[in-house]
Design goal:
Two copies of one chain form a homodimer. Chain A has 523 residues and is an alpha/beta fold. Helices cover 32% and strands 20% of the residues of chain A. In chain A, strand 8, helix 3 and strand 9 form a beta-alpha-beta unit. Chain B: Residues 141-460 form the Glycoside hydrolase family 20 catalytic domain.
Chain lengths: 523, 503
C-alpha cells in the first residue's frame, strides 16, 4: 500500500492513528465514518478519506513473522491466490512499467480471540486473527475495501476494523433432491457464501423425489433412487470436492439425511425400509415413512450413518425429523401391534419420538451432534426452527429455548418463497433475539439459516434467487443489530455489494431500478 | 427408402415454398411440439435420423432457392438444434427418407422448421428419431409479442439476442422493445446524441449504438421476429430531459420553478419539432411498419403547477381538463408518425381519455388485471379499434408456485362483443417490465413462463384448454429449451436429461 503519489525522496507521511502502526492496539484509532463498502457490516470500524493507490504489480500477501500460520498453510495459501484475483479483477501481469512505490503487503499476525483485526495504513495493511477461519473473513473484508476509479486504478482507504460474527451458525440450505444441482452450481454457491461470510452449507442432500448421494455401503440407494443413476448423482469424489472447496472458504458442510418422513426415494433402493401402507386390510402398494418397528431399519440407519459420519467430517449431522405423516403408520397392522407392545397407545408422536431417539443415539455413538427440525424437540441438543412464519417464530424460540435447547432459526428466511418486489427487506428486519426469554435463553440461539427449498429451483435460477437476497440475512447474522437497524441505510450498501457480486461473476439479481458499472456478462 | 410427407402451410394454400428435408431412416416414441400445432397426426411409426445423411433442400418448385438469406441461415441453425453436440465423424449406414415442408412465405417456413426440430428426439444411446407425422399449422393471432424493458435496467445485446432465440422456439413474432423510459435513455440517437450521452446509465457501456440496434433487428428478422420500438411519451420521459433541454415541463412550487420536471411540455412548438426529427430517425432505423408511442400513466400534477401550461389550456379552450391536453399531444405525435407512413400503437390510456385517434391506431390493453381486462376489450373493440392484449401477461409480477397456469388459462376472446369485435383482437403480448429484472434473472423469469402465453396465442383454444394436459408437455418443452442453452427455470420438482450447464 502506498499513499497516493508520494514524492520518492520524502518519508512516508505520518500516520494518523496508532492503529496504523503494526501490532498497536486498535482501540486508540480515531473514529471516522464507518465504511459503506463492506457487507455484512463489520462490528467496529473506522475509515478515513485518506486514500492509497494499490498497484497489482507490487501487491502481495505475506505471513507475519510471529504468525503461527506460515507458508504451507493450505487454507491461507489458497485464499491469498483467490483474493488477489478478487481484489484485482481482470488483471493480467503485462507491463512492469509501473513505478513501485513501496513494498506492498498484507501480513497475517498472531493472537486475539475468534475475531480478526484489520488495519490498512500507508505502505501496509495488517490482519490479525487467532484462527485461519478468522483470517479468511478478514481477507474478504479487505477485498471489499478495495475499489477502482474510472480509469481502472485500484485504491483503498486508511481503515481500521475489529470484527467478529454475532452468531456462530450462519447457514444456507440447498435442496438437491427436488432438483439435482450440478456440483458446479454448489461450488459457485460456496464462493458467494464466503463473500457474505456464511459459514455453514446445510446440504439437504436427499428427500422424497430423489436420492442423489452415492453411498459406498448402499449403492442401490442412488442407483435406483436418483433421477438418473449416472448423471444425477453425487459421487464420493463430488462430495469430497464440495467439502474441501467449502473448507478452503471457511464453510462447514452439514449433511442432512432426513427421516423417517421425506424418504420415498430411499425405498426404491432399500427394500423393507419403508412402511407398507394398507388399504382395506391389504397392502396398497404405496409406502409411508421409514418403518420404525423393524430391527433391520436401525441396522440400516447405523450402517448408513457410519458411512456418512466418516464422509462428512463436520461434528454436526442433521437428522431431519420433520413433517411425518402418520396416515400410513396408522394403516399398518404391524405398526399398530408394535404400538401396543411399546405401550404407546394410539399416540403416534410417541412412535416418532421413539424412532428419533434411536437414531439420535446412533449418531451419538458416532461422536456427532444431532440437529433436527423442531418437530421433535424432546430428544437432542440442537433444534432447527422452521415453523411460525411469518411472525410466530418468536413464540417457538421462547418455547424451545425455555426447555434449554440450543436452536438455529430458519423460519423467517425461507427465501424460496419469492414475491414481487423488494422482499429482502423482510429478511433484513428479522430480530432473532427479540423474543420473550432470559439472557440465558437468548444465548441458546446459536444462529440462523437461509433455506432455498427446491420445488421451483434448480441450476437455472438458483443463483439469482439466492443472491443478493440471502445477503440480507447474512448481515443480520454477522453484524451488530443496532448498527444495522435501518433498511434504508442498508439499501445503497446492498446495491453496492450486489455490484461486487456481479463483478465476481455471481449472477446476483438486481434489488431495484439501476445499474452496475460492470453488468453481468455470463450470458 | 421411405418417403415422408410433412405438409406445412401458412393460411393460404399457395405453396410458394417447398423445402425437402432429407432424413436417414430405420425404428421408435412421439415427441411433443410447443405451442401445439393446429392440425396434426402422428404415428408410432418411427424413423431414425442420421446427422451424416441429413440435409435441407429447397424444393424444385419453391420460389425460395439457395441464396434466400433467411432460410439458408435457418437451415444451419436448425441443423444444430436438431442434432445438438453433433460432430461429423460417425458413419452410419442409412436409407434415405424425406420430409417436406410447404409454406407460403419464408416466415411460415421458419415456423415449420421449428416444429420439425421439436419432433426429433434422442434415445438413451444418443440416436436421433422422428415419427411419421403430418402437420398443418398456422397462428391463431398475428401479433404474438414479448416486451423487454431496457430502461429500468440495461440489457446487454447478448441478453436480447438470447431472448430472440428463445422467442423463435415458442413462435413469438414481435419483440416490443421498450427501449427508453424514466430511468435511462440507452438508445444512441444519430440526430440527438446527447439523449444517451446524458440520459443513459453510462454514456459508453450502457447504450445501444446504431450497430447494436441493427444487429438486433437483423437477428430478429432471421428468426421471423419483428422489432417494434417504443418511445414512450409524454410521461415516462425523465431521462429524455437530461440530454434535451426545454423538452420537459418545469414544475412549479409556490409560484416559482421547483427544479423538478414533469412530462414532455406539450405547449411548445419546439417539442413537436424535436419529436418529428427523433421519430423521423427512429422510423428509418426500425423498418417495422408499427411504432409504439406509449402514452401511458401521464401525471398531471406538474402540468397543473405550470402557469404556461395553464395559459395554453385557456387558449386552447381545454378548461381544466388535462386529459384534453394529453389527447392534444398524442394526436399531434400520432399525426407525425402517420406522415412517416408508420402505424401507431399506443397504450390504452390514449383511448381512455380521447377517441379522436386515427382509425388504424392499435391499442395496447394493460389495465384491468386480474379479471377486468375483458371489460376493457369489450369497450375498446366496440369503438372499432384494433387491440393487443397485455394485461393478463405482466409476468414480471412473480409469485411463488406455478403461476404459468394463470397465463395459460387466459381466454383472449372471451369477452362480450360481436364477431367483428373479436376480429379486432390482433394478438397478445407478454410484458417483462424491468424494475427487478436485468441480464442476471431475465431468462429464468421469462422461460418457460412466457411459453404458456405463446401457446394461447398460437394454438387452437379448444385443443389446449386443459392445464393438466399442458403440464407434462410444457415440462418437456422446458427440457428442450435447456438442451438449446436457454436458462429456463423448472416448473416443479423433477429433472431433465440434460440439466443446465452454463454455470
Amino acid at each position: 500500500l502506498a499513499p497516493h503519489r508520494p514524492p520518492r525522496d520524502r518519508p512516508t507521511p505520518p500516520l494518523r492513528g496508532p492503529g496504523c502502526r503494526p501490532r498497536a492496539p486498535l482501540r486508540r484509532c480515531p473514529r471516522y465514518i464507518p465504511p459503506l463498502r463492506v457487507w455484512p457490516m463489520p462490528q467496529i470500524s473506522a475509515s478515513s478519506p485518506e486514500q492509497y493507490p494499490l498497484n497489482p504489480e507490487a501487491f502481495y500477501f505475506e505471513y507475519g513473522r510471529q504468525s503461527e500460520a506460515q507458508p504451507g498453510c493450505s487454507v491461507l495459501d489458497a485464499a491469498f491466490k483467490r483474493y488477489f484475483s478478487l481484489i484485482f479483477p481482470d488483471y493480467f501481469p503485462v507491463t512492469k512499467n509501473f513505478e513501485l512505490f513501496h513494498d506492498i503487503l498484507i501480513f497475517l499476525d498472531v493472537p486475539i480471540s475468534l475475531k480478526y483485526n484489520l488495519s490498512v495504513c500507508a505502505g501496509q495493511a495488517s490482519l490479525k486473527a487467532e484462527t485461519v477461519w478468522g483470517a479468511l473473513r478478514g481477507l474478504e473484508t479487505f477485498s471489499q475495501l478495495v475499489y477502482q476509479d474510472d480509469f481502472g486504478s485500484f485504491f483503498v482507504n486508511k481503515t481500521d476494523i475489529e470484527d467478529f460474527p454475532r452468531f456462530q451458525f450462519r447457514g444456507i440450505l440447498l435442496d438437491t433432491s427436488r432438483h439435482y444441482l450440478p456440483v458446479q452450481a454448489i461450488l459457485k454457491t460456496l464462493d458467494a457464501m464466503a463473500y457474505s461470510k456464511f459459514n455453514v452449507f446445510h446440504w439437504h442432500i436427499v428427500d422424497d423425489p430423489s436420492f442423489p448421494y452415492q453411498s459406498q455401503t448402499f449403492p442401490d440407494l442412488s442407483a435406483k433412487g436418483a433421477f438418473h443413476p449416472m448423471t444425477h448423482i453425487y459421487t464420493q469424489t463430488d462430495v469430497q470436492r464440495v467439502i474441501s472447496y467449502a473448507r478452503l472458504r471457511g464453510i462447514r458442510v452439514l449433511p442432512e439425511f432426513d427421516s423417517p418422513g421425506h424418504t420415498q426415494s430411499w425405498g426404491k433402493g432399500q427394500s423393507d425400509l419403508l412402511t407398507p401402507c394398507y388399504k382395506g386390510g391389504t397392502p396398497s402398494g404405496a409406502f409411508g415413512p421409514v418403518n420404525p418397528t423393524l430391527p433391520s431399519t436401525y441396522q440400516f440407519i447405523a450402517r448408513l450413518f457410519k458411512e456418512v459420519s466418516s464422509v462428512f467430517p463436520d461434528s454436526y449431522i442433521h437428522l431431519g425429523g420433520d413433517e411425518v405423516n402418520f396416515f400410513c403408520w396408522k394403516s399398518n397392522p404391524d405398526v399398530r401391534a408394535f404400538m401396543q407392545k411399546m405401550g404407546f397407545g394410539t399416540d403416534f408422536t410417541k412412535l416418532e419420538a421413539f424412532y428419533m431417539e434411536s437414531i439420535v443415539n446412533i449418531t451419538s455413538t458416532l461422536n456427532k451432534t444431532a440437529i433436527v427440525w423442531q418437530d421433535v424437540f424432546d430428544y437432542h441438543e440442537l433444534l432447527h426452527i422452521w415453523k411460525g412464519v411469518p411472525y410466530d417464530y418468536t413464540k417457538e424460540l421462547s418455547r424451545i429455548t425455555k426447555a434449554g435447547k440450543r436452536v438455529v432459526l430458519a423460519a423467517p428466511w425461507y427465501i424460496n418463497h419469492i414475491a414481487y418486489g423488494q422482499d429482502w427487506r423482510k429478511s433484513y428486519t428479522v430480530q432473532p433475539l427479540n423474543f420473550s426469554g432470559t439472557e440465558e435463553q437468548k444465548k441458546l440461539v446459536i444462529g440462523g439459516e437461509v433455506c432455498m427449498w427446491g420445488e421451483y429451483v434448480d441450476a437455472t435460477n438458483l443463483t439469482p434467487r439466492l443472491w443478493p437476497r440471502a445477503s440480507a440475512a447474512a448481515e443480520r447474522l454477522w453484524s451488530d443489530e443496532k448498527q444495522t437497524s435501518s433498511v434504508e441505510k442498508a439499501f445503497p450498501r446492498l446495491q453496492d455489494f450486489r455490484c461486487k457480486l456481479l463483478r465476481r461473476g455471481i449472477q446476483a439479481e438486481p434489488l431495484y431500478v439501476g445499474h452496475c458499472r460492470h453488468e453481468y456478462q455470463g450470458i
